[in-house]
Amino acid sequence: MTDATPVQSAPSRGLLARLPSLPVSLIIGIVLLAPLVVAAVAGGSLAPYPYDEMNIMSRLQPPGADFWFGTDEFGRDVFSRTLVGTGSSLVMGVAATALSLLAGVPLGLIAGYKGGRVGEAIMRAMDVLMSFPPILLGILVLAVTPPAQWKAIVAIGIVYVPQVVRLTRAITLELMQEEFITAARLRGESAAYILFHEILPNIWPPLAVEASLRVVFAILLGASLSFIGMGAQPPSSDWGLMISEARPFVEQAPWIALCPGFALATAVIGINLLGDGLRALLDPRNTGAH
Amino acid sequence: MLAYTLTRLVYLALVLAVMSVLVFLVTQAMPGDVASMIAGQFASKEVVDAIAVKLGLDQPLIVQYGHWAAGILRGDLGRSLVLEQPIAPILLEALGRSLVLAVVALAVVAVVGIGLGVLAAVRRGKLTDQLVSGVSYLGIAVPDFFWAIVLVLVFGSYLKLLPTGGYAPITDGFLPWASHLVLPVVTLVLMLLARIARLTRSSMIDVLQTNYVKFARAKGMPESVVILRHALKNALLPTITVLAIDFGLILGGVVVIETIFSYPGMGRLLLFAIQRHDLPLIQATILIVSAAYCLANLTADLLYAFVNPKIRHGMRAS
Amino acid sequence: MMTAPQARPAVSPVVASASAPKPAPLLDVRGLTISYGNARGTLRAASDVGFAIRPGEVMGLVGESGSGKSTIAMAILDLLGGGGRVDSGEILFDGTDLRKLPASERRALRGDRIAAVFQDPFTSLNPALTVGRQIAEPLIQHKGLSPRQAAVRVEDLLAEVGIRDPRRVAAAYPHELSGGMQQRALIATALGCEPKLLILDEPTTALDVTVEARIIELLAKLCDSHKLSALFVSHNLGIVNRICQTVTVLYGGVVVETGATGRVLSRPAHPYAKGLVAALPRITADRRHRLPSIPGTVAKLSGSPAACVFAPRCPFAEETCRSRPQAMLTDGDGDGVRCWKADALAGTPWPDEEATGLRRPRTGETAETRSAPLVEVDHLRKIYGASRSILPWLRRAGTVAVEDVSFTIGRGEVVGVVGESGSGKSTIGRALLALTEPSAGTVLFDGADLTQQVKRGDQTLRRRAQLVFQNSAASLNPRKTVGAAMDRPLVLAGRADAEERRKTIAGLLTRVGLPAAYADRFPHELSGGERQRVNIARALATDPDFVVCDEAVSALDVSVQANILNLLAELRDEMGLSYLFITHDIAVVSHIADRVLVVYGGTICEEGPIGRVLRPPYHPYTEALLSAVPRLAGDGPEAPRILLEDAATAPGGRGCAFAARCPRKLGAVCDEQAPPVHETADGHRIACHIPLATLAERAAVFPELADADALPR
Amino acid sequence: MMMRRLVARTVLSAILLSGTAMAVQAAGTLKVSVDSNLNTLDPAKMKGGQEYVAAYLIFNGLTVIGHDMTVKPDLAERWERSDDLKTWTFHLRKGVKFHNGRELEAEDVVATIARIQDKATGSTARVNFEIVESMKALDPLTVQFQLKSPYAGFAELFGERQARIVPRDAVDTLASKPIGTGPFEFVSFAPGDRIVLKRNPNYFEPGLPKLDEVIVRILPESSAQVAALTTGELDLVWNLPLEAIDKVKADPKLKIDSVPTSTWDGVIMNNTVKPFDDPRVRKAVAMALDKQAITQIALFGNGTPTHSPIPPSHPYYNKDLKIAKGDPAGAKKLLAEAGYPNGFEVTLHTPAGRATRERLGLAVRELLKPAGITVNVQRVPFDVFLKDIEGKAGFYIDGFFSRPTIDTSVYPWYHSRGSWNTALWSYSNPKMDTLLDGARQAKSEDEAKSLYTQVQALAVEDSPGVIPYVINHINGLSAKVHGFHSHPMMFLDLRDVSID
């Protein structure tokens, strides 16, 4: 009630100054992700070989001095392919998540704020979408047209819209009960102002945490879709596709699958840790302690 | 509770009805068509048309939908155009195999996952907790297909201990049946375990901080009673929901795992149907998969309500 | 009797005191120091705390939030959570230092020799287990009863705590019981193993006033009949006065005063205790005066106190107070005070602000002398949860929150609405502000239908009616500065000039007693009282005529509550505001309202000028409410309390809403017919089947009001 | 308690020993795997190799293509042709019974062929029998065909995969419950899982088959197939994945059996679509592709570079022609002549899920790069491939199984009225037509050989598409399996097979 030692506000201090007090998982997450982001941005120029250069003489080479992570059945350098594939895999996750947020957040806001018939209609539509198992929805979307990576992104984006809508709506409903929203209504604010200036800023922290987890799911789902041939297309070096193509050779040349597998694991662990760290950082209950 | 169940069932029926229309339209929109698929490479137009007429594909969509929907209401899922067999038995068989996978995998996940989650929550911050967290990270970090490949490599190719693909009906004997299940189940467990363990851990931690747990301690209850009787029962509520949803997911087919292990469940049936462009089979499979998924969700909610006396009794009011 | 300031052992050797041979204490806490630690540092929750409870004695441990009272209770139970630890000290129970016992032995004592009841019965019972099983658990654990034997004992226990249907309650789940029943179940659990010591941590705070009264009555009876000792943790001085023989006052984790309840509450020695007693709103007080209040906010410590913890807020503080810690001064009777000036101040009351000229006395101007009413409520009715689904089993009539309520609020008038939880009082407030649409009836604001205007999108009229909330934290957007929160109403009012708006905000902040620089702060950087001031300032920013105060001071500590009440009163006087003051605390209402509505189950049972409502004739419910108001020693004789039954069913139906709990129920007529309204002079109306004359025969709950015409009108 | 422990122990040992436990089955049971699900068991509607496996186990034709690629009697014990090559009379073997016990009659043959001719059946073999003017059963054991035009290879047509003779009274249930005259009887089919067949005790070849039971498991994952073969869970992997050959060879308990075939993959260029309407462009593509390298990449060397569908193992093969070695510089020059000095960009479609063809596509992409042609590979699901790509797109990878005769292997693709040609690359050269028509009526082997030699030269010169190789058909099997020989038509012939 009467709290005499005001708790220092989290956002009012510089990030750098607070580095020692940042959650450990956040720091590890960033450390794991940083090289991947670099690879995603500059993958092609860092790679020792072009990702699609074939060399029949050196196919299925084990890791060595020339090819750090060996070569695949076409003699392509696995390391270069993995490096170049970073962009494809990360973009898949981030873009699909962005898409689901872009569509889901406004719908969730409206459903939560408006309620009534509009809200009901939105939520029932989401129910229908949600009653498809995620990968099924992805397959269905992709089965309508020839596969391509951007379509996989759209498909995954659509798959996760209901979750985002539900979360946004739940938070909005909760916020609608908050008295500061009542105060805004009392002073005669428009619905748009309340939605975008009062509610939205309070939705971001939980959404950011949710988004980081969604990115993980999207990356994995994207890899799965590529794996069954409905995502990225050869000769692209998307990780899921690489692992899928490596299957027949896994016994002779396990490195073809292991290299992108480890990259995928690093990305997922990194983002998970980032999400955990973010949660700890943004959770009001954890101000100070983590 | 009854009213709630009824309401949910009505919703379910509505959702499925809407979905059936959606599924029907989407499958119609698919490129490629079944008549040319049946006619094969380079069939002439007349051949394709003749097949289309024979299959009734020339009729207006609404009529086709009407026939289809009426059939489903009668329990007739139609005939597979490619397999030229009634769909229902094929689907039931695949569903049965998916059911086996789901039940076995979830039984393992539930026991191990909840156990680990409780252990981690009770030993929060200690080595055990960190070990469990680490293992569960590994579980979610690596995609299921990667685990599957590793398992095939290790147990099938190197150790030659387990069959790496296919399915043996129980009529072949218990051992072949069970041995074929091991790898897909282990893969599924690796995939699902982490979530269950982490969820149990976090809800357990929440429950351990509640007043009623504090009050149970104030009554001098031993820690084991506090954890197992007072905390666990309440902490399991969200876990039950997720388990039921996972159940629906596996029942609806885990396409990737079924592909790698050549497991003839719902996922591969669907993939088969899509690849062969067998519209009735696609429609029926999606409908059944979605219905199974919805039912699992519904069961989750009902189970949640049933386990939670507050909702069980208060359902009428809400 | 008290000596000069000098360093003395902190713990008074009460036992060794020869002047009054008393039995050895059952619980003797000595030098207890507790701190909470986390990565950011440590917070001292209790410093060198000592007190003793003798067999059969109930000791009150009082203090405001953050005083460390609950922490001490939990430390005794060995249930400190969240990084709390006991740094030093002894907790002697029956002569044994509990801290030296292994954890398993301490656990064996808990629930058996030392039992506890916590604040919130709603969350203290496990929702997944039946009540009976939860009560039986310690019996089986500590006494080795079989489940069957335990079940029999459970029913006995439930009967003993006043539950009429023990078998049904034992088989019920917690959510099926009312709050009062739940708390009785908890008490039954605590009593099960016949403990020697009860730890009661705010056992009635979460309950309604009439329920609280019954629970206190029960606890007092049980402590007496079982010869129980108890540590009674509370912030409520009135309750402590009723049940405790001795009291220990905590401030900032430090014991500032201890002694016999009667003495401490009637003649407090420590300045903080003086302030606390003075700031308590009293029904009998002259409401033309401001409430005395304690300036500032509660201090928090990170280490051993280096000065008197209360010095920053103490009007009597001198330089010495700020430079050295205070020692406990005790006398032979076990009374103690931690203030070197205690003797010197013995006759000095807490300073009256009017006397010091800080505040203007309220002018006696009346509101009703003005013209037409500002707000007219006509046959307002609100039903929640009604549903017209196409699915027959989903159709619901809904819950009646407000049933046919009519009243008016004059310009400059303060109307209080008093009721318990579920009485519909908040719904009335929300309907008045067009935050909820009435199911029937109309609300006219300044002659216009506000609801219809808002529906049409016309917000101008609405800005003239504002709301001050209970939860000062939730009512401010955590991501906006105070200035930004106050800026919006001005922008909406068409004030284009940013500089001018900034000035206005500074002016408003100053007006509610905050520095203008607070405009740049975020809500979480403010204390609860400061946030409530910001809330008020924000409400004022639209330049309203009418403000609904919905439990606006309920969440605040007594010392802060007085501040806010004073501020609200001042604003009304200066700006001619009208208030609808919604609260569960009739003492608070009596202090600020001109007129009062007593609501129960969505209906108005009694309405009238405050002076009339506080005096007979009473509606039976009003009478019970008034009799439940706890009073401090020295406030006058306690009236016989009217104890209401726990509500068995929700109010509703055709008859009187209060019929089910009414101690004076006439019979079937109360259940079946709506009560007639008796009207007396001055607009005093009572809705009851009992004839007015019979009602008027009752004795006054506050006789001092009856004869002394302390109240105007 | 005891019981529970016992069960637990059993389960444990079961899991550990399952590898060997799997092998415990009826002694005469052969477990075979195929790599893809079967769509249908109705031979007339079959289209995939895995289906033909079933067709040859359950059914017979009037004739059969032998391991030496020559036509041999099957249900027909002998046949006669008129001198004008237009009237063909087949005499059925006596006493052949369908699995349902009914005797085979000439009317069944008529019904079978009529059904294939029916457009609504949608049989890919229909075009083969368009040549039939009329047919009739002269008596229960004799059937006679009148052809529209002379055709020397008509008897071979009955060795074709779809032309399995089916009982005329049970055609409607063929897809799910096939009845034939073959060495094995149908027992059950679980789509996606397995087909179970048992020995036909009334099979007309005395003493055959030797096996009691055949289980055809559907295992799409190559690693699972190989693992199952090594653990003994399978006895034979039909069409062994190429990448597993080394592993099987290295295992002393396993062996490889392979045979050259005339099954080929091709880089199809639509001769009516720009830029492939210019023969110079097609020629440039052909020049740039190193067929030896492609055979290595796509088949891991398990095939032979060729000019046309005529395999190098065949006597008609043109040995004087050189196999393209890959000449990007020459290709560039040709492209410049054709008006593409800077090359061009094109999309190459490959059917998804056909590993060798996907590898072929990627190899083409790499090998055309130095010639200045930028290829974007687009994988297409097979159903879409059939509908929207084949015969429609400009540039794609396709492939075809061996045909029973050289005529059926070449004519349909290269003759301007050939059935596959019109729907594949629309190649038309009157000179080629003359050569092919002539070969059909060739009176002697030498004449035929000379004509086909010219056909190959012209096919390379015009390059309607590039046929880089013919594939070896490879099976992996357990050393316990005896009497198995891979068939150049990729049939699974199990009549003589036995297992220890």
CATH fold descriptor of chain A: MetI-like fold
Structural class of the helices, strands and pairings of chain A? mainly alpha
**Structural class by sheet pairing and helices of chain B:** mainly alpha
CATH H-level superfamily title of chain A: MetI-like
In CATH, what is the class of chain A? Mainly Alpha
- How many helical elements of chain B? 14
- Average pLDDT rating of chain A: 79
| Tally of strands of chain B | 0
Q: Would you identify the regions of chain A where 5 or more consecutive residues have pLDDT less than 50?
A: 1-13, 285-290
Average pLDDT of chain B, to the nearest integer? 82
CATH architectural grouping of chain A: Orthogonal Bundle
Order of helices and strands of chain B: HHHHHHHHHHHHHH
Shape of chain B: globular
Question: With helices defined by DSSP (H or I, 4 residues minimum), what is the helix count of chain A?
Answer: 9
Task: Supply database-style keywords.
heterotetramer; A: about 290 residues; MetI-like fold; disordered N terminus; disordered C terminus; B: about 325 residues; mainly alpha; 2 domains; 14 helices; about 80% helix; ABC transporter ATP-binding protein (chain C); cell membrane (chain C)
Give an account of the 3D structure.
The complex is a heterotetramer of chains A (290), B (318), C (713) and D (500). The N and C termini of chain B lie close together (10 Å). Chain B has helices spanning 2-29, 34-39, 45-55, 61-73, 87-122, 127-141, 144-158, 174-208, 211-218, 223-251, 255-260, 266-276, 279-307, 309-314. Chain B is 78% helix and 0% strand. With 318 residues, chain B is mostly helical. Chain B contains 14 helices and no strands. Chain C is an alpha/beta fold and 713 residues long. In chain C, helix 4 packs parallel to helix 7 and helix 15 (482-492) packs parallel to helix 17. Chain C is globular and about 70 Å long. By secondary structure, chain D is of the alpha+beta class. Chain D has 15 helices and 19 strands. In chain D, strands 1, 8, 9, 10, 11, 12, 13, 16 and 17 form a nine-stranded mixed β-sheet that branches. Chain D has a four-stranded antiparallel β-sheet with strand order 4-5-7-6, with helices on one face. The A-B interface holds A 124, 127-128, 130-133, 135-136, 139-140, 143-146, 216, 220, 223-224, 227-228, 240, 243-244, 246-247, 250-251, 254, 257, 261, 264-266, 268-269, 272 and B 11, 14-16, 18-19, 22-23, 26, 29-31, 137-138, 140-146, 149, 152-153, 157, 248-249, 252-256, 259-260, 270-271, 274, 286, 289-290, 293-294, 297.
